[in-house]
Amino acid sequence: MATPMIVELFKQLFGGPETNLFPAKYAPDSIIEFLEAVKRGDIKLIPPVETPPGFRGKIAYDREKCIGCRQCIRVCPAGAIEFIPDEKKVKIYVSRCTFCSQCNDICPVKCLSMSPEFLLADYDKYSDSLIVK
Ligand code: SF4
Ligand code: SF4
Predict the structure, then answer these.
(1) Which fold has domain 50-133?
(2) What's the pLDDT at 28?
């Protein structure tokens, strides 16, 4: 009788790959030229895998809802959130974020959330795409 371990072994041997080839099916010689070709529409990126429910990706912020209470700053273990006194709003540095979600949990008006976005690589850790405000 097949034990669960043998069943799992056969699944691993004959099943498809668990990884997703991304962004292309091959390693391009020049990633810069590859991305330029993507921009021109000559090459299509392989879409990334779908994220599961509860995935913690890039933080999202509903600025209008924020009441400026600073609770998120108090609990952030990474010092990733800055208060903007003039506006009584916050600014989040994604490059410092550890995706712990503690700020989401404590926010009294639920204006913070973890989005499914995970493609965050950038040359500049202070680029617009890595600062949420
Ligand atoms: S998810 Fe965690 S590390 Fe990221 S900003 Fe919120 S509290 Fe800070
Ligand atoms: S906890 Fe929520 S409401 Fe309070 S400052 Fe942070 S984001 Fe704004």
Answers:
(1) Alpha-Beta Plaits (3.30.70)
(2) 83
In the chain, CATH 3.30.70.3270 covers: 50-133
pTM: 0.78
Confidence at residue 1, expressed as pLDDT on a 0 to 100 scale: 59
Give dist(CA 19, CA 26) in Å, integer. 14
Mean pLDDT by 10 residues, the chain (133 residues): 83 82 79 89 85 94 98 98 97 98 98 94 92 96
Closest atom of ligand 1 to 92 CA is 5
pLDDT at 20: 78
Q: Is 113 exposed, middle or buried (0-12, 13-18, 19+ CB in 10 A)?
A: middle
Nearest CA to ligand 2 atom 2: 107
Calculate how far, in angstroms, residue 94's C-alpha sits from the geometric centre of ligand 2.
16
Judge if the beta carbon of residue 130 lies within 6 A of ligand 1: no
d(CA 62, CA 99): 17
Distance 45 CA to ligand 1 centre (A): 30
Rounded to the nearest angstrom, the distance between the alpha carbon of 51 and the centre of ligand 2 is: 26
